[in-house]
Design a protein that fits this description.
Elements lengths: L1 H8 L9 H34 L3 H37 L4 H6 L3 H6 L5
Amino acid sequence: LVELLWYSIDFSLQGELPVLKFMQVFVSSYFGFADAYQDSTSVHIAGACAGTLDSKDSAWWAGKLANSMFYTYIGGVVILQWMICGTLAVVLDPSHACLAKILHMDTVAACISMPQ
């Protein structure tokens, strides 16, 4: 909803997408949000399997998998993508096109003119 609001009321956006192209880009950008949710859910499922498997060996592997998935998600998505790249996008890009792209707001990013 934030993307739709930003797209509709920000008069500094110079481009405009045709309706079909807008819907195609907007719907496909939603999958970025769903991807983060699915990744975090997978970590919880793997952790739950570690505590419920009958085989001691299988439970050990499930625990290792859950831990590696957790640390990869925290390091790669939360710290690197959201915190570091998000901060750099805010500090170094006055147009905020990079921030919109990181936040999966592809329709907004497609209409922003980048500075020279």
